[in-house]
Predict the 3D structure of the following.
Amino acid sequence: MVSLRRQSSDRKSSRGKFPYIRTGIVLLVLWLIAVMLYQTYKPLPTGISYESPEYRVDQVEFLHDLTYPSSDGQMEHEQQIFQRMMQIVEEAEQFVLVDMFLFNNYQHKGQNFPPVSTEFTKALVAKKINILIWTSGLLQMK
């Protein structure tokens, strides 16, 4: 019995030593929950939220780029998207607006991919029209 009393009294005394830490942690968690709720339900600024009308079309063309090993071990590249991008640049008359997440020629060691960004850049420069490139949230005018 004596040892139980000592343990319970030790617990009580240790709880009383650091009341600010427990209170700080609780306040921090409550603050994080409040921020998450606010960011989830706050209204968007005017002009940001846009919902276009629904469009019905009769013909849809799915473009894809594939990279895969062939039966002889060589990497095969099927580039429908890139070919269409080059066609659009060639047909452009006034300007080109490009929205890409990554626009560089970085590759990991041992990987070999077609130089898509280099060829696309050369096509844009050769066209010599107004070009807006939106990459990772940065607008670059060329």
